[in-house]
């Protein structure tokens, strides 16, 4: 506690169930009070999991304050544990090299905290579910909360008069994912802050894993916060975030606990069912709206500072919350009202069948693709089959394509990306340090011919989940066979 006084940063305290108290720098007060940040109070962190875990009612605002706190704690640790590497990075950054040591450290702490505070400012109602709905809909744009969040951050800094502060410039660069680290579009300091917020081991995961676990009432996400974030270092080879030996086991604990949260909470079958249900509601509403201008009012996927600066747009965005969006959908799409009511009273479909897409290579390839148009073709065929079943046979079902979680022991982050400093200049992978590296394992390689070997890693797999209306449950085998026929036909597409 009282972390910030060391850097002569005045702050005020707010209570928090995870960290007891969170210090908020006084420089951040105009940002925290801004309507764009206050909007996050009305965006649920886990909008669908509350149908399984009733106490999961916490907001993106609470999570953002938590990430801000962890980011400043982690930045303080980097100052203490990696002073040489940090000074080298400061000297390569025009925003910092002209200042003395005390000012540099203060701005670094503020940049980390500000990036943590604003990393989710662009989140949509129902979070990632809405972004997935855009993949199902026949529209020529998508919603990306990181891209919108970057534009909103610039607007926030202009409104509060801190746009030219060194720490604000760092925050903007760190949050702007269009700036490429490989092309040296950002400085080492920018990269360090970006890695803290979104990297192989980062404070975003560090907060939501334990916070979501707490509010769900589960033990799955618990790890030693202080042990991990007080033992991070900067890898001088590439300015990535690593851990020292004291932090290694907790880096693994965070990775494992996050996996447990995905398996038991984020990918719970009821969450999948409500995901599919909400996607259907949102997509059917998008299809009711004909003009792009009106579609942008439903899902404001702005792509310019001018659109962000428009006060009329901003006012609509402030009211674009979970409950607010359901209200707008009900006004636009009367046919969705019954499904919305069913969702609100937890009258949902039941689990049906799971179809492994490994047996359908083309569908698997498309599911894993980042190409929205390719994905839409498959999703549209499945939606057409759904409509046909309802019209011709009065059978109602939903579907969701979901990526399987790779056990963290095999994850590339653990095997390669998360590094442990075991000596002054030696960094090894977390898996190697904990003695389960595939590099040293008998299962790492298999013979392809007498002379060659091939690495063995689990392949990324996707499953197609089918959900059925309770009254149609006896039809699930029939639906499954029809879907498999569709996937077989899709497999022949060149």
| N-end to C-end Cα span | 60 Å
Radius of gyration (CA) equals 24 Å
For the residues shown, what is the average pLDDT? 91
Q: How many helices does DSSP assign?
A: 23
Unreliable sequence segments: 445-449
Let me know the largest β-sheet: 4 strands, mixed
Helix content: 40-55%
Count of extended strands: 11
Strand content: 5-15%
Overall form = globular
Order of adjacent strands in the largest pleated sheet:
3-4-7-8
Class from helix and strand fractions: alpha+beta
Q: How would you sum up this structure in a few lines?
A:
This protein has 494 residues and is of the alpha+beta class. Helix content is 52%, strand content 11%. Strands 3-4-7-8 form a four-stranded mixed beta sheet. It has a three-stranded antiparallel beta sheet with strand order 5-11-6, sandwiched between helices. The chain has a two-stranded antiparallel sheet with strand order 1-2.
Tell me what you see in this structure.
The protein has 23 helices and eleven strands. The protein has helices at residues 29-33, 35-38, 60-81, 83-90, 101-118, 127-136, 145-160, 166-175, 188-197, 203-216, 225-229, 245-266, 269-288, 292-298, 305-309, 311-318, 322-332, 337-344, 361-368, 372-393, 412-417, 430-433, 476-490, and strands at residues 11-16, 20-25, 232-235, 240-244, 350-356, 397-403, 419-421, 427-429, 445-447, 453-455, 462-468. It starts with 10 loop residues before the first strand and ends with a helix. 43% of the residues are buried.
């Amino acid at each position: 506690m009282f972390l910030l006084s060391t850097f002569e940063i005045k702050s005020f305290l707010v209570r928090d169930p995870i960290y007891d108290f969170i210090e908020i720098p006084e420089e951040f007060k105009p940002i925290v009070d801004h309507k764009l940040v206050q909007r996050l109070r009305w965006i649920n962190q886990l909008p669908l999991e509350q149908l399984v875990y009733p106490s999961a009612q916490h907001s993106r605002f609470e999570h953002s304050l938590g990430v801000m706190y962890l980011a400043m704690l982690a930045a303080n640790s980097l100052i203490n544990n990696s002073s040489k590497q940090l000074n080298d990075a400061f000297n390569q950054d025009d925003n910092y090299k002209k200042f003395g040591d005390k000012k540099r450290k203060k701005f670094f702490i503020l940049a980390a905290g500000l990036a943590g505070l604003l990393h989710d400012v662009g989140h949509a109602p129902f979070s990632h579910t809405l972004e997935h709905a855009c993949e199902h809909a026949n529209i020529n744009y998508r919603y990306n909360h990181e891209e919108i969040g970057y534009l909103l951050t610039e607007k926030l800094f202009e409104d509060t008069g801190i746009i030219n502060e060194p720490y604000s410039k760092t925050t903007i660069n760190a949050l702007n994912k269009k700036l490429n680290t490989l092309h040296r579009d950002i400085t080492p300091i920018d990269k360090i802050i970006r890695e803290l917020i979104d990297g192989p081991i980062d404070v975003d995961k560090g907060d939501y894993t334990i916070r979501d676990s707490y509010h769900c009432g589960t033990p799955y996400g618990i790890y030693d916060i202080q042990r991990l974030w007080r033992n991070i270092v900067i890898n001088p080879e590439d300015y990535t975030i690593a851990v020292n030996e004291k932090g290694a086991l907790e880096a693994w604990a965070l990775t494992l606990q996050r996996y447990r949260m995905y398996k038991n909470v984020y990918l719970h079958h009821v969450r999948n069912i409500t995901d599919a249900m909400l996607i259907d509601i949102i997509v059917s509403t998008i299809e009711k709206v004909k003009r792009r201008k009106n579609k942008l009012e439903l899902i404001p996927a702005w792509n310019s500072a001018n659109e962000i600066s428009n006060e009329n747009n901003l006012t609509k965005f402030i009211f674009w919350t979970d409950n607010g969006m359901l209200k707008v959908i009900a006004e636009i799409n009367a046919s969705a009202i019954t499904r919305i009511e069913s969702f609100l009273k937890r009258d949902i479909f039941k689990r049906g069948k799971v179809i492994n897409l490994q047996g359908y290579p083309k569908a698997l390839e498309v599911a894993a693709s980042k190409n929205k148009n390719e994905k839409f073709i498959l999703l549209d065929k499945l939606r057409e089959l759904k409509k046909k079943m309802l019209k011709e046979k009065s059978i109602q079902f939903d579907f969701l394509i979901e990526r399987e979680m790779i056990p963290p022991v095999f994850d590339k982050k653990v095997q390669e990306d998360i590094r442990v400093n075991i000596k002054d200049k030696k960094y090894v992978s977390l898996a190697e340090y904990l003695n389960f590296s595939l590099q040293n394992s008998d299962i790492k390689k298999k013979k392809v011919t007498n002379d060659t070997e091939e690495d063995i890693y689990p392949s990324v797999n996707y499953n197609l989940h089918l959900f059925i209306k309770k009254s149609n449950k006896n039809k699930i085998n029939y639906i499954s066979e029809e879907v498999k026929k569709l996937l077989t036909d899709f497999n022949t597409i060149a």
